[in-house]
Amino acid sequence: MNDLGGLVWIFASACVVNNFTLTYFLGLCPFFGVTGRLVTAFRLGLANIFVMAITSVAAWLLNTFVLIYAPYLRLICFIVVIAGTVQFVEMVIKKTSPALFKALGIFLPLITTNCAILGLALFQTNKGYGLVQGIVYGVGAGAGLTLALVIMAGLREEQELGGTPSLVRGVAMSFFIAGILSMAFMGFAGLFHGA
Amino acid sequence: MTPVETRSEPSSLRLVLTLGLTGLLSGLVLVGIYLATKPRIERNQAEALQRAIFRVLPGTESTTPMVLRDGRLTEWTEPGRPPEDGTIYAGFDAQGALVGYAIPADGSGFMDTIRLIYGFDPSRKVIVGMQVLDSRETPGLGDKIVGDEAFHANFRALAVEPDIVPVKHETTAPNQVDCITGATISSEAVVSILDRSAKRWVPVVAPADGGTPPQVSEVRDGR
Amino acid sequence: MAAETPTRPAWPELTKGLWRENPVFVAVLGLCPAMAVTNSLRNGLVMGTATAFVLVGSSLLVSALRRAIPREVRISIYIIIIATFVTTVDFTLAALMPDAHKQLGAFISLIVVNCLILGRQEAFASKNGVGLSVADAAGMAGGFTIALSLIGAVRELLGSGSLLGLRVLGSWFEPWAIMILPPGGFLTLGMLLVVFSWLRARAEERRRHESARTEAA
Description:
By secondary structure, chain A is an all-alpha fold. Chain A has helices at residues 4-17, 28-33, 38-66, 74-96, 98-104, 107-110, 115-127, 131-161, 171-186. Chain A has one domain.
């Protein structure tokens, strides 16, 4: 699974076929809670990709060198690493682009509790991916997350203008939209079969 | 607004100590839980593996893991579990004679990775059984690869040379697999996983020149 | 020290989580790991029970230690406590119910980022006595499990024609495979949310009717 075809499959699988949000229900909090602003959603998605790539490497390092001796510490170590990474990313963004920092606001620290990041580390561990595979997986998952966020934000902007029955308005409607999106993404299955 | 605090701010030392203590206690609890559950968990996993091996290598009574060392297949004798990738399982019958090898393999299916294990008879050079261990294929369609009787009948005496080939209708040659209608991609995925794995392992367990057979410790008696 | 609320009877704390403040249907919390595993009633029940164990245990511990936990690092300590419980559940399940463990997979570990658990520590357990905190946790966990079981039951019934693995609907029923696939999860929860908000709107209407009548009388 390490050749280019395999890597493409890993990326495509994480991004569309087994989209983290629409297939595994991860990262739902920002998905349903994010403002209808497309630009914010996109930037949040990019921040997520970055954190996921770093988390992927960190998870691989931990798994390979540390956790073989103490597998029961896996969860705690992953959480600590993720919290640390997000702190670090926060500092970096604050220093390099204060405007972006302000725009992202509360969403940045919320990445820590985003189940998608921890989910990435855990899934990657279960699949036994190597370093390169892991990074591809992480970036693919982040890209998929971004894709879902952006689509949802765009649709919610539309929804606000259209008329929805009051009983369904709000969260329930978002779920129906998500359900249809999820169905649509299922259509990507089999895209790269036989890789 | 929080009311005016009457106590002084805790020192950084106190914060670090509290965190450290919590971490330490947590670690101790986890070590305990780990040690308490480890034997049971390992037994569960070994049992599941044994069950799968017995299914794909009919007639097997005992098994042993084998790995490649310096290009030769040798028994895994070290303590602890053998590596995930690169380990196959030799099966022996009640008299201790070699029945064949159970080889795990995986690859991409329609929805997600498919993990399976198949039994290989080196003397006849055929696959004698196949079991899907893990899959996420479409329920009602692709997941038929797990239990469909007709599909599994393909794997009772499947020739692996020169390739394993999927076909859509009747099989006309011993190296063909009749795919499940409506689950073509999942079936073909299984075939491709088997084909790739066979190409990797057959030269090892059944060398073409009939040369040195894999190093297996002397025929066991009832192990 | 966070402001302490005076001691209250425990019963309301227990029941509020079941209906009025149901974490899934009202507050829409704790969804992430929950939805992926509700493709059958049994998985929903196991997941709910596992979460309940973590929630009640964490609340108990946090509440008992609330005076000793410094405010500045409280979130980190909550997380360590929660993660310890989650890891315990993970290993215990792997030892005692390997099939269920395999089905739920990594989602058991994901209980640790279930916003519901951390939320209850911050909002309640850190400010109330052990008895009340356990009642609160038990109620929330109960509501959560009920919600998950409901979702799981609907999805399994429509998606496999069975409940708890036993075929319930006869062979005349062609299962809707979509229900046990991810879209089914979203759609089911959406439907249930609509049903619940309709029920709550009706209860609200009735209450307003009642008070209008008693006022007029």
